[in-house]
Amino acid sequence: MIFFGKRAFVSTVSLAIVVSVSGWFVIKSAEEQVLKGAIPPNFVVNTAENLRYIKTTDKGSIAYIADAKTAKRYQNEDAIMSDVKIRVFNTQDPSQKPWDISSNHAKVTNNNNNVQMYGHVVMQRAGDGINTPPIKIASELVNYDNNKDFINTDKLVTITEPGTDNITTGVGLTGHPNQGDYQLLSNVRSYYVGNEK
């Protein structure tokens, strides 16, 4: 019983040689791009699911812990993540409560120090008593610089105090989360219910 005729066998061998040589050229071309540094910056280097990344300071304390459902790391060291949850610690004053931040997506740049979070961004911190009540900040986009402890956005921002009816809205925000100071930039509206005694 013959499975291949002579013509089919020669065609199969010829196809295998063409595929092998083509594959060799692709690999050699990729090697040359790597050696010349010609890989485009948006080339995906790594992908991950259910990722956890822990950023530490030079002194070894935890600056933040980031969790993401999916992540892609690019040749230029940037990363794009989805379903993101980040816990940011106050490295200057460890007694302060950490910030819990979540968003649909995040882009991480500058050696993991700058994060642009977008798509239902929520920043929350538990209270430490009367002088520092709990706070919740929501927007569609927030930029965060970890080195400078600085956030900003030009989008609509809603600030609430969980457990109360207190609410403040405005367009645009700048601030330093670990210091607890924020400035809404325009169209500020507040509704505040005084403390009941």
Features:
single chain; about 200 residues; alpha+beta; lipopolysaccharide transport protein A fold; 2 domains; 9-stranded antiparallel β-sheet; 9 strands; globular
Helix content bin: 10-25%
Q: For the largest beta sheet, what order do the strands appear in spatially? A: 1-2-3-4-5-6-7-8-9
Helix tally equals: 1
The figure for the number of domains is: 2
Instruction: Report how far apart the termini are.
Output: 97 Å
Rg from Cα: 26 Å
What CATH calls the topology of the largest domain is lipopolysaccharide transport protein A fold
User: What is the CATH first-level class name of the largest domain?
Assistant: Mainly Beta
Extended strand count: 9
What structural category arises from helix and sheet content? alpha+beta
Oligomer classification: single chain
Largest sheet: 9 strands, antiparallel
Q: What fraction of residues sit in β-strands?
A: over 45%
Average pLDDT taken over every residue: 80
Report the CATH architecture of the largest domain. Sandwich
Question: H/E element string?
Answer: HEEEEEEEEE
Q: What is the molecular shape?
A: globular
Q: Provide the CATH superfamily of the largest domain.
A: Lipopolysaccharide (LPS) transport protein A like domain
Could you list the spans in which at least 5 consecutive residues all have pLDDT below 50? Answer: 12-16, 18-24
